Amino acid sequence: MKIKKIGIIALIFTLLSFFTPRIALAAGITAVSDTMSRMQISQSSSHTIKFTTAAAIQTAGDTIAITFPTDFNFTGKTIGTVSFTHGATTGAENTEILAVAPSGTEWGAVFSGTQNRTLTLTAPTDGVGTAAVAISDKLIITYSSANSTNGTTNTTYVGTITVAGSATESGSFAVVLLTNDQFTVSASVDPTITFSISATSTDFGVISTAVDTSSPNITLETSTNATTGYNITIQDQGDGANPGLYNSTASYLLGSGDASYNNTADLASVAGYGIQATSATATIDARYDQTSNTIGGYERTAQALASYNGVADAQQVTITSKAKVLGSAPAGSYADTVTVIATANF
């Protein structure tokens, strides 16, 4: 009978044990990630480590340990290049102060192990610091790239995060390193230049002993993507030997040269023909950068008219032609041909 009683007691104990609720262990940390600034082997890289805790970390002496795998090198890493934030929504709500050892308001932060691969954060002596790490808080621990060197092998590496103290939980993160984590992009842009002349002729009408201006003015417009801009030159036909307005019937040339017709003596004694040039953007050569009744003369060889240093978009140079004759100038028709050349400086 004693043997039977013992058997019954054992059966009851077994059934009670089966139906007695078990105490649940803390769940592991979740949403673990490590975002790196570089994934190339042996390169310096920052690390932004994120995870969500299933337990509150708010007791003095609680620790968070992050251990990187073999090959990563954090020798010389300092806590000044590490940050620690946490919060319920983004993980950036509360920023903790890190120090070599924990105090009433600061978390301790210490690198240890081979090549400083382990970082241990220790809760403040009040367990709270800036704010308590609550259950389901998102945590962000950031390493700058200073003294943070990737491993040397093209492979997948696994690191660990361990919370210890009043609560125990852990998790892992994986990162992959590549022989080369970059690709190059190349392109080219064809050189361009456009150049236009507003009109193909301008007319003085009847030239007098006063100073006359032809109409219309001639506007040159230049666009180019040349980084050092463009130059414009100007060249005169004249009579084939000398510049000027030529009367072929009378074989008479109203010569072109630098001249001023700004006083009575000049008007009475000087005849000639030339131009002025203006621009809001381009630099006009000093010879043609004239006003009032002063002109710059043409030459039979190409002369610098205007220039610009840089990419140009529809830049304009305006040419005004002026002329006067003396009373002895032969009657008849006068003509000239002027050639303008724009050169882009690529």
Structure description:
With 346 residues, the chain is mainly beta. It folds into two domains: 27-176, Immunoglobulin-like (Sandwich), CATH 2.60.40.3490; 193-344. It is 7% helix and 38% strand. It has helices spanning 2-19, 264-269; strands at residues 30-36, 47-52, 63-67, 82-87, 94-95, 97-99, 106-112, 118-122, 138-143, 156-164, 169-176, 193-197, 212-213, 218-224, 230-236, 244-247, 252-255, 259-260, 272-278, 283-284, 294-295, 303-308, 312-324, 338-344. The strands form six sheets. A six-stranded mixed beta sheet has the order 6-7-8-3-10-11, with no helix packed on it. It has a five-stranded antiparallel beta sheet with strand order 1-2-9-4-5, with no helix packed on it. Strands 12, 13, 14, 19 and 23 form a five-stranded antiparallel beta sheet that branches. It is rod-shaped. The relative contact order is 0.15. Mean pLDDT is 91; it is low at 1-26.
Give the SSE map:
Elements: H1 2-19, E1 30-36, E2 47-52, E3 63-67, E4 82-87, E5 94-95, E6 97-99, E7 106-112, E8 118-122, E9 138-143, E10 156-164, E11 169-176, E12 193-197, E13 212-213, E14 218-224, E15 230-236, E16 244-247, E17 252-255, E18 259-260, H2 264-269, E19 272-278, E20 283-284, E21 294-295, E22 303-308, E23 312-324, E24 338-344
Parallel strand pairs: 6-7
Antiparallel strand pairs: 1-2, 2-9, 3-8, 3-10, 4-5, 4-9, 7-8, 10-11, 12-14, 13-23, 14-23, 15-22, 15-24, 16-17, 18-21, 19-23, 20-22
Q: Largest beta sheet, briefly? A: 6 strands, mixed
**What general form does the structure show?**
rod-shaped
The spatial strand order of the largest sheet comes to 6-7-8-3-10-11
Q: What percent of residues are in strands?
A: 35-45%
Rg, rounded, reads 44 Å
Overall tally of structural domains: 2
**Class by alpha and beta content:** mainly beta
Distance between the termini: 113 Å
Q: Overall pLDDT, averaged?
A: 91
Strands, total number:
24
